[in-house]
Amino acid sequence: MRLVxxxxxxxxxxxxxxxxxISDSDQRAYCEARENGSSCSYIHDSDLRxxxxxxxNGSSCSYIxxxxxxxxxxxxxNGSSCSTIHNSDLRxxxEAQVKGYSCSYISDSDQRALCNAKQTGSSCSYISxxxLRNECEAMKR
Length: 141
Prior knowledge:
By secondary structure, the chain is an all-alpha fold. It has helices spanning 2-16, 25-36, 46-57, 67-78, 88-99, 109-120, 130-140.
């Protein structure tokens, strides 16, 4: 009985993990802005802060310096094409999120699992990276 209770408590940590469990301060602030409406101004990385402002506050994606991230932001925001994204995993994630394509073309297993969780509601427990897994759990709440 104790073993069953211990296992349930262990797995419940994954279920209730959220933004506060993300160790990277910029990613944690971005997650909190998306999930709770917190300010994006606490994010130090300028591209991530600009992406947060675009997603949370409706600002322009044009302030994102990285062209792939800017194109991804524009695709999510206004449905523009993902085909201009050079990074194949990011392009595949974009096509899955914006156009409903399969996540199976994403080669990074953690990103593929995150994509599947977003798209089909599958479990976040397959994500090895704890920050990404916690972000996934926060998104599913």
